[in-house]
Task: structure prediction
Amino acid sequence: MKALECNGFVTPRDYTSYCRFNMLKGRLYRIKAIGAAVLLVVACLLLALFGFAYSIKELFVVAGVLLFCALMFAYVMNVNVKNMCNSKAKIVRAKQKTIFGKNGIVFELIFEKNPDENEYSEIFFDEIDRVYDGPKAIYIYIEKRSVIVLPKRNLNMSPAEARVFLKKYVPAHKLVLCV
Result:
């Protein structure tokens, strides 16, 4: 089986997707997110209906405040991701080349404007905390707070072949397959 390679840029949209993933990471993170959103909307509707039925105006206000807070949370998260990408603009604009082998990963950041800043790392699988195979990207956690984002559009093979490759070479206790 050929090596799994990822060549390309990681865009701010990829980082936004990562932030959403990181909040509820795990096998069923999308289902958790949808469940939380549905639960919030249903709770707000029930509060509003209860307030309407018993003429309690304060419940309308509470329902409105809850929905407003949820929308502000989503907005602030997107703004924070944009700010993070702007503060780390050097890394975001670098071409990323990652090669999975049998024993680990070779990771390179390639800066086209200034080749002296190029970074090269070899990471063995025993140094990796977790590898999450998500729907849009593969997230490699080197430590609990340090991650390498590999967008699936940049892979040299299909997502199904990549999943087979990961199952074969990444230790089972370090690989999490997400739905």
Remarks:
- The chain has a mean pLDDT of 86.
- The CA atoms of residues 109 and 115 lie 10 Å apart.
- The radius of gyration is 21 Å.
- The helical segments are 12-23, 29-53, 57-87, 89-92, 159-169.
